[in-house]
Every structure is written in C-alpha cells, then in structure tokens.
Amino acid sequence: MKEKKLIALGFEGSANKIGVGVVAIDGTILSNPRHTYITPPGQGFLPRETAQHHHQHVLPLVKSALETAGVTPDEIDCLCYTKGPGMGAPLQVSAVVVRVLSQLWKKPIVGVNHCVAHIEMGRIVTGAVDPVVLYVSGGNTQVIAYSEGRYRIFGETIDIAVGNCLDRFARVLTLSNDPSPGFDPILQANNDISSRVFKVSV
C-alpha cells in the first residue's frame, strides 16, 4: 500500500500580496493562487487598506487553491500561515482565517516564520544543502546561514533594504508589481535583461 503524502494548506499575507497554496511534504507545489494589492504610482500600501484587500480575496483563493490542487479539506493534514515578520493588519487576516478553518476542519495549525520560509523555498528549488543566503525580501537585507540548530543572522543593512530599493527603482521605470515587483510579460517575452533582473520576487 502506497504511503500517503502529508499535505498542507498555507497562507501568506505579510505584505501587499495574499496567497493560498497547497503543498506536499516533499515540496511539490499542487497549487499557488495569489492576488496583489496594487496602489496608484508613487503611493505605498498602508496596513488597513492592504488588510481590506486580503480580506476581500482570501476566501476565493482558498477555493481556487483546493480546486486547482484537486484536494478536499479532508485530505489536508495541517494549516500553515505566515506568523511574521510582516505588516500587522494584513498578517491578522490570514491568522483569523486559519483559526476559523482549523475549528471547522479540525486541523492543526503551524505558524511559519516569513524569512525562514523564503530560505526553505530556495533550498527546495535549488537543492542546496547548507547555503549561505543573501536575504533581500521586502524590508530585510540580511546574510543568513544555518548554525547550531537554527538560522542565524550574520550581517544586515542599516540603511534602505535591497528589496525596497528594487521596488522603488521598478516604480520609477513603471514596471508592474504583479505578480512580483518589476515583472513585465512583454519584456520577458522579448528576453530583455531588465525583466530578468526585476522578475525576482523581493
């Protein structure tokens, strides 16, 4: 008899993107729908408005994630959500939804560190065993590595973070923020160097 793979339903809503994904324990991504809150040019995204956006889109994303993955709530083994770091109000949306679904579906909850999740995704994609990471997500620019049973920060910036710098530069060039900062499908289709630089999710 084939052993069942454990499956998690995960929620990420730490900034202006809300995403709900279904992933197997071996790292196989079964679905990953998401929706980005985009503000007018020159304006940042504020916590309250961002949280309202997430509230509006999170339940349709749950439905889409389950349907795309071809799984039912009964087949989900645990519910994961970004516990932090991130923007407080947007983070609360995922936290509340996960707690409600946990009660309805009788599933355990796993809180996930935003920074560690980025690193672990990179490990899965690249196959790296013990990487030293330059972490440039959003407001963070840090050199991180695994040591003595945990990820540790070996250095970080004290000025503007690289992620924010790329976001600002992409806005100056009027590159889209959907699905990631600076992503432009036309530039990508033309294999333009700028699309390859700014397509990286920061």
Automatic annotation (TrEMBL):
The keyword Heme does not apply. Keywords: Acyltransferase, Metal-binding, Transferase, tRNA processing. Its EC number is 2.3.1.234. Residues 34-185 form the Gcp-like domain. It catalyses: L-threonylcarbamoyladenylate + adenosine(37) in tRNA = N(6)-L-threonylcarbamoyladenosine(37) in tRNA + AMP + H(+). It holds the Pfam family TsaD. Coiled coil: none annotated. InterPro entries: ATPase_NBD (IPR043129), Gcp-like_dom (IPR000905), KAE1/TsaD (IPR017861). It is an enzyme of class 2 (transferase). PANTHER family: TRNA N6-ADENOSINE THREONYLCARBAMOYLTRANSFERASE. This is N(6)-L-threonylcarbamoyladenine synthase. It comes from Datura stramonium (Jimsonweed).
